[in-house]
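Async update (no meeting this week)

Hi team, since we skipped the sync, here's where things stand on the single-chain job. The sequence we agreed to prioritize is pasted below, unchanged from the tracker. I ran it this morning and attached the output directly underneath so nobody has to dig for it. Comments welcome in thread, and please keep replies under the output.
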Amino acid sequence: MLALSLVLAALLQTPAPVPADTTDRPPKTDAPAAEAVEEVTSVFEEGPVPADEESGPGIQFRPRVAPSALYSTNRGFGIGGGVGVRNVGWTGTDLTVDLTLQQHYQGADVTVYTNNPYDSVVHGLVSVGGSTTARRRYFGLGPNTVPESEVNLFHDAAQAEVRAGIYPLGTTALYVQPGVRLLYDYSGGINDGAGPGSLAGFGDASREAVEVADSEDRYGASFGIEVATDLRDWPAYPRQGMYATVEHRRFVALDETDLTLARYAGSVIGYVPIRGRTAVLARAIGILTRSGDADGDGQDDPIPFYYLPTLDARVATAFRQDRLTGRDVVAGGVGIRVPVYDFLGIYGVDAVVMGYLGNAYDNVFEQFTPRVSFQEGSFLEDDGTAALRPSLALGFGLVNLDKERVVLGTLLGVGPGGVTVATLRIAYDLRDARPLFR
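Output:
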């Protein structure tokens, strides 16, 4: 009875995703909480946030900028810009068009939400996008990779996606999202003009992941179901609570390769309030990827590198982009968020410090060990296990205290392979416009 009472109490206190003019919201306080990472409305990768009180019918335009496009260690300098248009066709729609132009990367995305996914019991998403890069960095697969093994690859990609989002209980305690993605990829192999590098020093699996993709047009479809529970008090600006997801996807090649993949992922983030806007954050994520055996040789088929998960800034903030890639990824971190400055009670600045441990694995069940190593070099022990790699993230966010939302943020991460600059963000949300993995 006690357990049942606790579950019922959690459901009753969970905000219901209903139209914006009647959505239950946490009461305003003199010191509203500041989530410095979850929903940054000025950055491309995010989707809509809970509607503002003043939002209403009629077409509304808003600019979109991407501070993270200004510089990337992988992609160089550049700019990112776009436009968002609400209420196109009917009240509640959200159309976004985004363009990124960097030295070594160009990309464009168009996304349409049928309704705000935070306010509507049933909603949909349609998205198309593409990108091209001459410097997709690759260090090999698994835990035993070092910066000296780096090569730069040509990579073109495009995708189209259709999703549906449903709150079966009428509250955010349960969110279900089925979806289908159509994928296209082309890898032009090593970019010899981007510096020295060859596949000669890579292991068999790392080399095959590039060779199986080299100079081939690859087509495929990814089908999946994702389930989440959102018990945060305010998704754009949590004071306390937790957000957890589990997902399963199946990939089927639509070309002559007959490649099949299965991916399983789970993640959780929790917030523990300390005082005012100060809170302790805890984050954990795990991803498993397995391929089929199309040629019947009893071995898993090699997987092109671009289908594999990467432990980088989108997964666990401080890790460098494209640095750690493998069939399996495990990471966890803890940190703290503290206010450092308030301006007339209208805007504030928050600081977030997070420490992480994680790695990418060929097979996490065979290679995982709780040991931690701060050294670069070989991470594989004689018994085949691999130590966790540490990273540290320091971020700052500009907070709109009235709307309880971070409007701009950036992060500096120090981890395997060096320093990275990324969008200030702790956790991916299933309702984001861009999926975490393809």
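Quick observations from my side:
Residues 1-14, 18-45 have pLDDT under 50 and may be disordered.
The longest strand covers residues 122-138.
Reply here if anything looks off.
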